[in-house]
């Protein structure tokens, strides 16, 4: 067992599960999507991205790409949230919440791809 | 991509992860601990404010307690996290900057930039390996004639020196070992515009490797090498190296020719010198009598061989004859720096001296001692290092042998004006009277300065006006080309040296010689003469004017007006 692989797999899967946790619920209901969840998703995704740095393989490159996509989506979501609360008069309306959650949904797809690739790589290794 | 980039990214992981975790923990703490607003009502710190606060806390910018004054619980948390985040920030940023400054990474970045620059070269270029004395002189010669060069050298100091040298063209340079084919490839060995490779490092083996790599990776390229020993020379020749230059042999041959034909030597010297330098004086080495050669190394042997062919009486002084070998006449044992040895070689009876050891201080000492004993000597001194130039200039030697300048000059001539090399070979068969007449003509033309030598190719690219002159009823001779396009009764300050026509080489062609497409011409003269001549070669009006003395109206309207004027 390679401890590095354990940590790597752990964070990638955790990024997906947390992302899913934030995503589920009514799309435009602020009560179903908590700020803490988004915070943790961003932190874990960041860690997962950094862990993918410096992998020479083709698989490593694609994994890094999916992570970067997820990061862009999540940071966009947090920026939308911040702007809505502090820099606009409307506050956190249902439509803003809907766009935040759909951005995180996009990030989740990237994370799903990430995990799928990880599984494929593991299966290939077994053979 | 290079391994180094991945390695650097991989090493960035730890500092980045520490930074992320420290920030996350500090932010989470700020968000959990209850806060108070301005009126004392309990509230929470949002993640946005927590991030804002942690960013300026960790970088020690410290804007104060925002958005509201903190509660004591918050202050306890901040006092703990300020130490952690500040320390982590300094550690992470310091580490990341150190990684970016990593020498290997910097080298990889420099190599990449160099590759890109070489790839984007659009003009023909020469790849010069080794930017020592020879290399720098050659690159200067090439760039002065607007030829591109790419340089590889193993010594970073020399590469920085290149950036300081004021070259007329941009010269991409890489600090790398020319022995590695990878470096040669990066420098454009396989580039479609690479015209040739010049190997000038001071290591024979490196030159050999460059030659082999060049011939294998790009068989069409011209390969020019410096070789200091006969074995290496033979080895290089065996796989088709185009030109091999042995500085010692080249100089010895030069002196041998100077003994035979001083005027001819002067002529070739002038034509192959740097334009604008003051012209050199002729040397008249004594052509009979006794010569003393100090040092029987590579240079001494070459001098011995060539002077022997001139039928001179030779004496050799050598400190370690068991290592170098002993010539047929025997050898005087010693270094030659002391009067005793020189006396033993009968320096007082000698007419010439060659101070040819590989030690500059010894050579200077030999020359000074010998000149004290016999002030009328003709002295040839070998200068091993260019930085001793001033000393050698002052010592009173008639000819100074510097291996690098000789090689640089030969190669420059070969690359910039190949016809001049042909001219020198042909000139060798002419007598002294011929050479002195030509020297006199050149002096009249250029006064005090080295003449400018250039080649003209008569083709569509370089002589647009000429390529269809026949169809337009113009008969172009050398005389036409040499007329001044501003006033056709005057001639340009130029002498045609060589005409290459249908594979035939015509030395000093007559002025009524026809010039046809496909000809190649070699001129010498003033630099402005070349510009005027280019004008004639490219501009059909200028050509018509110098050829028949009138400028015809070109263009449909003017021709119509001219036709209308004609019959009246």
From TrEMBL, chain A:
The chain crosses the membrane at residues 7-24, 36-54, 61-84, 96-120. This is Uncharacterized protein. It comes from Thiorhodococcus mannitoliphagus. InterPro entries: DUF6394. Pfam families: DUF6394. Keywords: Membrane, Transmembrane, Transmembrane helix.
From TrEMBL, chain B:
InterPro entries: K_chnl_dom, NAD(P)-bd_dom_sf, RCK_C, RCK_N, Trk_Ktr_HKT_K-transport. The chain crosses the membrane at residues 16-35, 47-64, 76-100. Gene3D superfamilies: 1.10.287.70, NAD(P)-binding Rossmann-like Domain. Coiled coil: none annotated. It holds the Pfam family TrkA_N. It comes from the Bacteria. Its main location: membrane. GO terms for cellular component: plasma membrane. One of its GO terms (biological process) is potassium ion transport. SUPFAM superfamilies: NAD(P)-binding Rossmann-fold domains, Voltage-gated potassium channels. Keywords: Ion channel, Ion transport, Membrane, Transmembrane, Transmembrane helix, Transport. It is found in: Cell membrane. GO terms for molecular function: monoatomic cation transmembrane transporter activity. PANTHER family: POTASSIUM CHANNEL PROTEIN 2-RELATED-RELATED. This is Potassium channel protein. It comes from Thiorhodococcus mannitoliphagus.
């Amino acid at each position: 067992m390679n401890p590095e692989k354990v940590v790597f797999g752990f964070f990638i899967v955790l990024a997906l599960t947390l992302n899913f946790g934030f995503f589920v619920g009514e799309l435009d209901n602020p009560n179903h999507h908590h700020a803490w969840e988004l915070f943790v998703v961003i932190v874990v995704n960041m860690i997962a991205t950094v862990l993918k740095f410096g992998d020479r393989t083709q698989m490593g490159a694609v994994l890094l790409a999916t992570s970067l996509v997820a990061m862009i989506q999540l940071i966009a979501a947090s920026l939308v949230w911040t702007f809505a609360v502090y820099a606009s008069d409307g506050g956190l309306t249902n439509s803003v919440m809907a766009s935040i959650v759909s951005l995180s949904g996009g990030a989740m797809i990237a994370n799903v791809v990430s995990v799928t690739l990880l599984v494929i790589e593991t299966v290939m290794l077994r053979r | 991509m290079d391994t180094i980039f991945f390695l650097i990214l991989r090493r960035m992981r730890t500092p980045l992860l520490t930074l992320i975790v420290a920030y996350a923990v500090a932010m989470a703490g700020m968000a959990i601990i209850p806060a108070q607003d301005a009126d004392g009502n309990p509230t929470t710190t949002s993640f946005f404010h927590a991030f804002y606060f942690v960013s300026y806390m960790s970088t020690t910018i410290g804007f104060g307690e925002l958005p509201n004054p903190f509660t004591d619980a918050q202050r306890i948390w901040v006092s703990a996290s300020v130490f952690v985040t500040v320390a982590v920030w300094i550690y992470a940023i310091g580490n990341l900057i150190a990684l970016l400054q990593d020498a290997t990474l910097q080298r990889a970045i420099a190599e990449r930039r160099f590759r890109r620059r070489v790839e984007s070269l659009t003009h023909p270029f020469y790849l010069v390996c080794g930017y020592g004395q020879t290399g720098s002189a050659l690159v200067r010669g090439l760039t002065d004639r607007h030829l591109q060069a790419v340089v590889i050298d193993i010594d970073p100091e020399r590469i920085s020196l290149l950036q300081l040298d004021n070259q007329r063209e941009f010269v991409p340079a890489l600090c790398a070992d020319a022995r590695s084919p990878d470096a040669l490839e990066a420098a454009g060995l396989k580039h479609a515009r690479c015209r040739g490779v010049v190997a000038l490092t001071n290591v024979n083996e490196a030159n050999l490797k460059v030659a082999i790599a060049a011939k294998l990776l790009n068989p069409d390229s011209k390969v020019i090498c410096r070789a200091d020993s006969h074995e290496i020379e033979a080895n290089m020749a065996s796989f088709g190296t185009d030109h091999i230059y042995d500085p010692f042999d080249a100089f010895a041959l030069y002196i041998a020719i100077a003994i035979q034909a001083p005027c001819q030597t002067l002529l070739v010297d002038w034509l192959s010198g740097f334009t604008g330098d003051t012209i050199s004086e002729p040397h008249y080495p004594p052509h009979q009598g006794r010569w003393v050669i100090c040092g029987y190394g590579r240079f001494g042997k070459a001098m011995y061989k060539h002077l022997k062919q001139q039928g001179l009486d030779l004496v050799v002084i050598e400190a370690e004859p068991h290592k170098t070998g002993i010539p047929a006449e025997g050898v005087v044992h010693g270094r030659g720096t002391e009067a005793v040895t020189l006396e033993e070689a009968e320096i007082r009876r000698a007419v010439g001296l060659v101070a040819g050891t590989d030690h500059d201080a010894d050579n200077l000492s030999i020359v000074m001692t010998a000149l004290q004993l016999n002030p009328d000597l003709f002295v040839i001194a070998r200068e091993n290092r260019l930085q001793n130039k001033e000393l050698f200039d002052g010592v009173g030697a008639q000819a100074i042998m510097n291996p690098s300048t000789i090689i640089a000059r030969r190669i420059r001539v070969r690359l910039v004006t190949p016809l001049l090399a042909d001219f020198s070979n042909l000139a060798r068969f002419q007598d002294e009277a011929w050479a002195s007449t030509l020297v006199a003509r050149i002096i009249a033309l250029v006064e005090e300065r080295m003449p400018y030598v250039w080649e003209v190719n008569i083709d569509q690219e370089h002589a647009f006006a000429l390529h269809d002159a026949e169809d337009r009823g113009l008969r172009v001779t050398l005389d036409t080309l040499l007329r001044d396009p501003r006033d056709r009764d005057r001639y340009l300050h130029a002498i045609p040296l060589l005409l290459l026509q249908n594979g035939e080489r015509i030395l000093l062609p007559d002025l009524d010689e026809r010039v046809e497409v496909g000809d190649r011409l070699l001129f010498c003269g003033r630099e402005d003469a070349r510009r005027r001549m280019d004008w004639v070669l490219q501009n059909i009006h200028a050509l018509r004017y110098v050829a028949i003395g009138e400028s015809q109206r070109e263009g449909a309207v003017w021709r119509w007006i001219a036709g209308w004027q004609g019959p009246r």
